[in-house]
Amino acid sequence: MTKGERQKLILKIIAENDISTQEDLVRILNDNGANVTQATTSRDLQEMRILKIMLPGRVYKYVAPKTEDTIVNDKLNSMLSQCIVKVDAAQNIVVVKTLPGTAQTAAAAVDSFDLEEVVGTIAGDDTFMVVSRDEKGAVYLANKFKSYMSERN
Predict the structure, then answer these.
(1) Strand, helix or coil at 152?
(2) Distance between CA atoms of 51 and 29, rounded to whole angstroms?
(3) Phi, psi dihedral angles at 102 (to 5 degrees)
(4) What is the rounded CA–CA span in Å between residue 91 and residue 113?
(5) Pairing relation of β-strands 93-98 and 59-63?
(6) In terms of Cα–Cα distance, which of 10, 117, 105 is closest to 65?
(7) Coil, helix or strand for 49?
(8) Can you give the pLDDT of all 153 residues of the chain as single tens digits?
(9) Which of helix, strand or coil describes residue 30?
(10) Residue among 127, 60, 137, 51 at smallest CA distance from 92
């Protein structure tokens, strides 16, 4: 197993399991054919900048650091959940009502997600419109935007 494959496996393991010690990680890696030592695993964790966070109950867990793209997406998702007021779809168009002054920023956020269902957006002050490739895409997008509203409630 190459170093790259091993590191991908580490990311998969820590994403799917609550791993709190290097010994546990080494055991699972070896069970998956990595044939590693604790020293190798320790170097991988350091190189990959894997973090150890404390969960409720003072239990620790390894997690992958957030990338810049993930941080930006988290901020955009947060912004959308705070500004969407109402969502409606008609054929291949989704109309999204927002708080006053936030529609252009929200539409820019939607554009930045590079969703294949989105042909484009048009924004005013408190409303933006998303043109989808088809009606099925519009329904998907409307449901996605409605989910942001439910996060706020």
Answers:
(1) helix
(2) 18
(3) -115, -5
(4) 22
(5) unpaired
(6) 10
(7) coil
(8) 888 899 999 999 999 988 989 999 999 999 999 999 999 999 999 888 888 888 777 788 998 877 655 656 677 778 888 899 999 999 999 999 999 999 999 998 888 887 889 999 999 999 999 999 999 999 999 998 998 886 655
(9) helix
(10) 137
